[in-house]
């Protein structure tokens, strides 16, 4: 539909001062309306609109459409779509209207840029961390298995978010033009968010058990962790998908996170976050008690554990609690900006924090990488030395002996290092 087609639909209409002529407002075609009257139509299919409500426009006494005191709308007229907005969308609109629409959009745009930078950086660091864990066999233990699953869940979430955000920046969204593709990406996003929080919870549970007591036997608890980390998010996501089929949703599930059924996911997530916080508090309490009772030789080790536990706060998903704040009540643009920048910084850089703390700053990982580089440089130097000496002395067997000797020495040191780090907290 366009303005020409709209006028063709009413080509038999004679323009008089008693009527406002047909008009197209880029959404709906409005029929000729008698002066002094209001014309109503059902709301069009549009993001955030309810098709059960009505839009309206007024025809002035002089036979011209009401322009809402905007000269640029004198010819086309003004259509009031405010009644079409769903309640939650209306609250967002009112919030931005009070603080200034331009200011609101500017804050939202900067927050999105922060997200893009944080997600990109997080993806790079997570990939580096996964490469390190999968290429160093000495790092294969139960603790690093949990780390790797947390990295994978976080990487899925980061990749899906980046794809969605890039698609939204396109002039014509590809996802919205393919049936169910948009919904599929949002399903994958919510699954990965739940899986990330579950594996963060498992990290806290593992640390809590290591300091206090062991709940499960060594041979069985890793399997239970796998079920908790991947199966539980699948079950919650499946229940949420079923519930979404019974509620009114827009195309591409626009603003689905404002619907009450979203708490099918948010409720369990926040519960696991709260329990993780309790784990953290108990961990700190136990370590402080041990610090008071320990001998001088143990104090340094416990202090490191306390610092690590404190750094676990953002990794345990506490930044997600900021989303519980009802930001729609913000009327001050400064408060809204502080909330937006802080929340999206912590959320988008979460992968960066996880990879840095659990991998790049981990002493065991750094020693493994350092030893690998030392072995590589040693073999490279010996190979170069052998190449030069074999030409002069004709002794081709030296390089193989040297390589085997250095490799066996490295493996013995690595095993000793791995044994010592496994006994630490």
TrEMBL record:
The keyword Membrane appears for this protein: yes
Ranges where the G-protein coupled receptors family 2 profile domain occurs: 5-88, 111-362
Alphabetized Pfam families for the sequence: 7tm_2, HRM
Lineage top rank: taxon: Eukaryota
Membrane topology: Multi-pass membrane protein
InterPro entries the record matches: GPCR_2, GPCR_2-like_7TM, GPCR_2_extracell_dom_sf, GPCR_2_extracellular_dom, GPCR_2_secretin-like, GPCR_2_secretin-like_CS
Keywords: Cell membrane, G-protein coupled receptor, Glycoprotein, Membrane, Receptor, Transducer, Transmembrane, Transmembrane helix
Subcellular compartments: Cell membrane
Sequence intervals crossing the membrane: 116-134, 146-164, 184-206, 227-247, 267-288, 308-325, 337-361
PROSITE patterns (UniProt xref): G_PROTEIN_RECEP_F2_1, G_PROTEIN_RECEP_F2_2, G_PROTEIN_RECEP_F2_3, G_PROTEIN_RECEP_F2_4
SUPFAM superfamilies recorded: Hormone receptor domain
Family named by the database record: Belongs to the G-protein coupled receptor 2 family.
PANTHER family: PDF RECEPTOR, PDF RECEPTOR-LIKE PROTEIN-RELATED
Protein name (database record): PDF receptor-like
Organism: Nicrophorus vespilloides
Taxonomic path: Eukaryota, Metazoa, Ecdysozoa, Arthropoda, Hexapoda
Gene behind this protein: LOC108564169
């Amino acid at each position: 539909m366009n303005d020409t087609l709209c006028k063709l639909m009413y080509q038999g209409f004679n323009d008089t001062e008693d009527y406002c002529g047909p008009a197209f407002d880029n959404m709906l075609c409005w029929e000729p309306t008698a002066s002094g009257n209001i014309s109503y139509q059902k709301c069009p299919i549009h993001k955030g609109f309810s098709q059960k409500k009505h839009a309206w426009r007024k025809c002035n006494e002089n036979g011209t459409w009401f322009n809402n005191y905007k000269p640029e709308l004198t010819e086309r007229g003004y259509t009031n779509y405010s009644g079409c907005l769903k309640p939650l969308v209306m609250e967002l609109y009112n919030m931005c209207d009070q603080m200034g629409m331009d200011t609101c959009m500017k804050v939202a745009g900067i927050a999105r840029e922060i997200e893009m930078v944080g997600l990109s950086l997080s993806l790079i660091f997570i990939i580096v961390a996964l490469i390190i864990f999968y290429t160093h066999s000495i790092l294969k233990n139960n603790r690093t298995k949990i780390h790797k699953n947390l990295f994978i869940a976080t990487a899925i979430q980061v990749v899906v978010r980046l794809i969605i955000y890039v698609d939204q920046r396109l002039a014509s969204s590809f996802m919205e033009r393919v049936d169910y593709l948009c919904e599929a990406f949002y399903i994958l996003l919510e699954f990965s968010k739940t899986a990330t929080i579950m594996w963060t919870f498992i990290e806290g549970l593992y640390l809590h058990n290591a300091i206090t007591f062991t709940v499960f036997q060594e041979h069985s608890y890793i399997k239970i962790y796998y079920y908790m980390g991947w199966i539980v998010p699948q079950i919650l996501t499946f229940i949420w998908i079923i519930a979404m089929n019974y509620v009114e949703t827009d195309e591409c599930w626009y603003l689905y996170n404002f619907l009450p059924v979203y708490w099918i996911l948010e409720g369990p997530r926040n519960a696991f976050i709260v329990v993780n916080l309790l784990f953290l508090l108990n961990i700190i309490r136990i370590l402080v008690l041990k610090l008071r009772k320990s001998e001088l030789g143990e104090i340094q080790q416990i202090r490191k554990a306390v610092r690590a536990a404190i750094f676990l706060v953002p990794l345990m998903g506490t930044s997600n609690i900021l989303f519980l704040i009802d930001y729609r009540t913000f009327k001050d643009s400064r408060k809204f900006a502080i909330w937006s920048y802080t929340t999206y910084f912590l959320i988008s850089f979460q992968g960066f924090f996880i990879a840095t703390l659990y991998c790049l700053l981990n002493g065991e990982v750094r020693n493994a990488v350092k030893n690998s580089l030392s072995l590589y440089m040693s073999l490279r130097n010996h190979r170069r030395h052998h190449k030069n000496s074999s030409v002069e002395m004709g002794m081709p067997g030296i390089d193989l002996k040297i390589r085997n000797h250095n490799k066996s020495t490295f493996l013995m040191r690595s095993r000793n290092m791995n044994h010592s780090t496994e006994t630490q907290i």
